[in-house]
Write a structure and sequence with these properties.
This protein is of the alpha+beta class. It contains seven helices and 13 strands. It has one domain: CNF1/YfiH-like putative cysteine hydrolases, CATH 3.60.140.10. A six-stranded mixed sheet has the order 3-4-7-6-8-12. The protein binds zinc ion.
């Protein structure tokens, strides 16, 4: 049976494939339905979340969800946070775009439609981080700050951290205004008709500046705009479109 989720995990070897016994990693496709309580048709979201995570060893009722604001705040979470935002919008952890934890069986979730999800895993300390990075979060160095938070909170060393980039709008499709040229040193691509932004390139630079090894950085290379038949795309669908769910958990 065709499933965007299965093909994503099987074909693109992100961190879940590197450490199949240590971490669970999921990224939903359009066919899995809207996962958001704040964007798109939210009525089916509870059922969609349950169905999507069924059989993955992740209990949807334990999800720790971020109420994202395109900022640079990182929240360290524990068992006490389990269920926050799992089945309602208000309970999600406010004003945060990155979640980190060293606890087993505490699933982290962020929500995207074109924005970049970044999966982080320290195989030594058994620590994970999950980041929502659009251009504004990237401008604030959310990826670098999340690595820093993992180092401070859990004694992670950058050389032990693996990073994976989920489906997101890519520089093929992400046309931006001239003002980006004054903001970003990395990731801008100039074409005849203007500037394009490469979120993955910009975030790779931020991880590299935090001394994450290039060999430990993985990218699924999926453009949500090119592949909007399979993934939610804010640029293609408009502001009322649904959101995909990125989930990461230490088993
Ligand atoms: Zn594209």
């Amino acid at each position: 049976m065709h499933s965007a989720q299965v093909s994503y995990e099987q074909q693109h070897g992100l961190l879940g494939n590197l450490f199949p016994h240590s971490i669970a990693l999921r990224f939903s496709g359009r066919a899995d339905g809207n996962m958001s309580f704040t964007h798109g048709d939210t009525s089916a979201a509870p059922g969609n979340r349950r169905r999507f995570l069924q059989g993955s060893g992740i209990d949807a009722s334990r999800l720790v969800c971020a109420r994202q604001v395109h900022g640079d705040a990182v929240s360290a979470v524990t068992e006490a946070d389990m269920g926050r935002g799992a089945f309602d919008a208000d309970g999600a952890i406010a004003d945060t775009d990155a979640l980190i934890t060293d606890r087993r069986r505490v699933p982290l979730a962020v929500f995207t439609a074109d924005c970049l999800s970044i999966f982080l895993y320290d195989a030594q300390q058994q620590v994970i981080g999950l980041v929502h990075a659009g251009w504004r979060g990237t401008r604030e160095n959310i990826a670098g700050k999340t690595v820093q938070a993992m180092m401070r909170a859990y004694d992670c060393l950058p050389e032990n951290i693996y990073a994976g980039f989920g489906p997101a709008i890519r520089s093929c499709c992400y046309r931006v205004g001239d003002e980006f040229a004054g903001v970003f040193k990395h990731g801008l691509v100039q074409r005849d008709n203007g500037w394009y932004f490469d979120l993955v390139r910009a975030n790779t630079e931020q991880l590299r500046r935090r001394e994450i090894k290039q060999a430990n950085i993985f990218d699924c290379s999926i453009c949500t705009s090119c592949r909007h038949d399979e993934y939610f795309s804010y640029r293609k669908d408009g502001g009322s479109c649904g959101r995909a769910m990125a989930v990461l958990m230490i088993r």
